[in-house]
Amino acid sequence: MLRVAKGRGHLAPGGRGDVCLDPGGLAALYTGYATPPALARAGRLPAEKGVSLQALAAAFAAPPPWMLDPF
What we know:
The protein is an alpha+beta fold. The chain has helices spanning 23-31, 36-41, 53-59, and strands at residues 2-5, 8-11.
């Protein structure tokens, strides 16, 4: 379970499973590659009713990833 308060996050066992992400969805959210609304539109972020995508976006706010070197 992730709890966010005053700009800090804490992980603990338990929770109700209000938000369920596979590893790829979590990686996209954590790195800033995709926003919660974008993941929800793509069907990658199933959430229980009442879960605020804006609050989730604020908890994982980050600039989009980029790299100087082309591959």
